[in-house]
Amino acid sequence: MAKAFFRLQKILRRTQFLLFFLTAAYLMAGSLLLLQRTRLVIQQGSRGTSANQALPMPDGMAGVGIVDPKTLQNSRPGPRLLVGMDALQEPALDQRHSPRWLVSRNSELRQLRRRWFHRFISDQEPMQTAGFKGMKHTAEHKGTYMGCFSDDSRERTLKGAVFYDLRKMTVSHCQEACAERAYTYAGLAYGAECYCGNKLPATASKPEECNSECRGEKGSVCGGVNRLSVYRVEELRAGARRRRNVIYRGCFRAPENLTDTFPASLIQPNLTVEMCSEFCSKKEFPLAVIRGRECYCGYPTGRFSLRDGADGLLCSRMHNTSSAAEGKYCLVYQTPVQDTRCTDRKFLTTKSKVFVALSSFPGAGNTWARHLIEHATGYYTGSYYFDGALYNKGFKGEKDHWRSRRTICVKTHESGKTEIEMFDSAILLIRNPYKSLIAEFNRKYAGHLGYATDRNWKSKEWPDFVNSYASWWASHVLDWLKYGKRLLVVHYEDLKQSLIPKLKEMVEFLNMTVTEDRLLCVENNRDGNFKRSGAKQKDFEPFTQEMKDLINRYILMVDEALRGKNFTGLPREY
């Protein structure tokens, strides 16, 4: 039996080899026959394509823009023209697979590839030698291009305001943003970063070193690596609409020595808020302080923290007095200038030993908390997800793998034993469920900065959303209380009301130390780029009584669980 099986296996192997040999022989015979026929055609005097005929192209290459325009100028569409035609004429169909057509097609394709290759090389050489000369600087931009300059991230010259758009940055966008804030210069770097200021950088660089293409505008230069493409936008300022007016911060008790507290000052007999704000904006300070006819410019500091406001009547009396120097109170205004003392951020240089989560229910202010933490610590935060909108606005940790440990903490909305126990510790951010549900519904239907329409609120989607998401709000907190290893519970409302003390507590939990001035800078930039703006939904009560009963039961459940774990219970406003 074994011998018979062995013989059968031997025969089958021979059969496979025989089939393979016959197939190869068949293909070789066909190739030889084709070569013989083509040789016969050439001997009969076939000339291929004349100079005045357009080159045929395969269907997949039609319209890709690599045909020489000179070749097509005097051509007449014949039966063999394959460019830009949906159907061929009948005579061409009869001849399409003839030996004559094959020889012509092969030779023409070789000419086409050769012509395209030479043109590609000739286009690339000047780009490499001239440093992106093909990119335009000022052809379509209103500002005056000043040149390429060196950019030192530790000591920037253009530091009046900083913007990021890693997907849609253009030269015009940066110019307009800086002009609207009354800056003189706009500088672009890395193809996606915009910097504003009133002083031209001191160190000029070679033009070819600004070689990063703008992310939102092909063919335009937006600086380079540690290089700024700088434009003068002063001529745009006259017609530019201010993005925001000067903001009144309040009346405060003046520090004992104003000259030592504020770096710049101006004395003007008929001083106005606009004059003082303009003066401080040119000096690139975010605060304009007025006491009588004296104008001072500076930052919030330990000496002048803007925490203890006074009655506005005290400032108005001092403003009207003839002896302003004796005034004990001053008016404080926020200029359009951004406080940039805390805008520098980077990834951790060494991997973090402690894996920290920044956990919250969606709509509970996680993005805002990330903004505060990044600016306070100077390090990026990561994310369990990838949100392109956040990444494009400067949250560079979005693209970093969430388990890389190169970020100070990782955003997550996940719950459940497995997802929670991956982290060594966590900041658990809790917000009023009524506000969280509204914020998440807005984000779902209108993005991070928009508002859902009345139609969305009055549709059946809103009751379904509440029924499913309200239980998630409760289960999210309960799971983290149950499975979290080391928790810091932060209530959104407490963070909003007492920003500096709560932020300091969060930073200490992350095992970081920060200066008082940096925390004050964060307070000065507290809103970030993700505060909702625009028209809010109309005044109506989105929650029915049935919804309120359901949510209130979850609130009591979560409050009891927090107190059971020796945490502060939910705020009374819930």
Structural write-up:
It is built from 18 helices and 18 strands. The chain has 574 residues and is α+β, with helices and mostly antiparallel strands. Among the domains are: 143-233; 247-318 and 326-334, no CATH class; 356-530 and 542-564, 3-Layer(aba) Sandwich (Rossmann fold). It has a 6-stranded antiparallel sheet with strand order 9-11-10-13-8-12. Strands 1-7-3-4-2 form a 5-stranded antiparallel sheet, covered by helices on one side. The N and C termini lie far apart (85 Å).
SSE map:
Layout: H1 2-43, H2 69-73, H3 90-95, H4 99-130, E1 144-150, E2 161-164, H5 171-180, E3 185-189, E4 193-197, E5 213-214, E6 217-221, E7 227-232, E8 247-253, H6 258-261, E9 264-267, H7 273-282, E10 287-291, E11 294-298, E12 309-310, H8 312-320, E13 329-334, E14 356-360, H9 366-377, E15 382-383, H10 388-392, E16 410-412, H11 417-421, E17 425-430, H12 433-446, H13 454-457, H14 461-483, E18 487-491, H15 492-497, H16 499-509, H17 516-524, H18 545-564
Parallel strand pairs: 14-16, 14-17, 15-16, 17-18
Antiparallel strand pairs: 1-7, 2-4, 3-4, 3-7, 5-6, 8-12, 8-13, 9-11, 10-11, 10-13
In short:
The chain has 574 residues and is of the alpha+beta class. Helices cover 40% and strands 15% of the residues. The strands form four sheets. Strands 9-11-10-13-8-12 form a six-stranded antiparallel β-sheet.
